[in-house]
């Protein structure tokens, strides 16, 4: 023990500790705000960890950083014209550079806080994420609801946060802080979204409905073609090809080159047209208010008119939408690479993958009973093009499905023949099998 006490690091620490001042238990909000602005943030807000608005992610935040008392939410602005251009190389470069800036700002703030003796942590603004959880929730912090709670804007119908001043030309960062602050910020009292529906008009896959509906799966399949599930689908195209000629029949040279570029220079978004077309925000709105027709011609129409490949899942709402709305764009049928790894993942993903136009005329209640490794009871109701997923069995079922959990997951991954599973009684149905076919039609993959 004496040897340990004589170690130079231990001695130096004890000498400094006797002279040091304890870090503050509560930080002054104004001083902290200025520290964040000096680090490069364009706006900042503070949210206490116990705020009800973020209660659904408190457990995961604490798991990442147990000392969290406060969340610092901040925004970094993007250059608008770089995002608005139909040239994807320019728009993607702007996104990635701003993500880099956002992460650097967060890291700089954390460094300054550590110099003050205050513990803090900065999860990534975007990637990298916790990919071992894929296809479930792979991010550490949901930046959007934190930003809304912090008063940095509200979600528009395109599901992006619109800042009251900077519009949706922002990227979000969050810092987990081990101390409280003297004052917290709260949501603004209006939504900057103008509900002009220009995001609806610009979206190449029809992911944003004029009624406010959002089709996650169609957006994910196209915009994230070179990320995650889309990358998996591409890799499987290679694996399934007998030779180079067969591969080229599945993936043309420009697609291969684009995938190489994504692997070399960061993944490319295929579209962010909803952001590009949005005129909301005090600093952004002038051209739209001054001449709406000209704004649409200069900003929205070039995105609509662009000849490009649109990636859709066969049988999806997007496939029909693109053919009807943008016949000059090339439709490519692909898989989205989303395969649930658990029954929990299957149930969680139903609302995200649901294709409401494929459910027209369907009015049915499904009871699912999963056995084996993962035992669950669930009720899925599809009615009036709306899906509802509930724990347990509720109401009277039109179709009851009892399935071994692993068999069901293999069936979803197209690794298990449904007929064999029915014959082996690994999957059992009570009700018309046609209802299972109708159910599957709502979730093309």
UniProtKB/TrEMBL annotation:
Residues 184-213 form the 4Fe-4S ferredoxin-type domain. Keywords: Iron, Iron-sulfur, Metal-binding. InterPro entries: 4Fe4S_Fe-S-bd, 4Fe4S_Fe_S_CS, SCP2_sterol-bd_dom, SCP2_sterol-bd_dom_sf. Signal peptide: none annotated. GO terms for molecular function: iron-sulfur cluster binding; metal ion binding. Pfam families: Fer4 (PF00037), SCP2 (PF02036). This is 4Fe-4S ferredoxin.
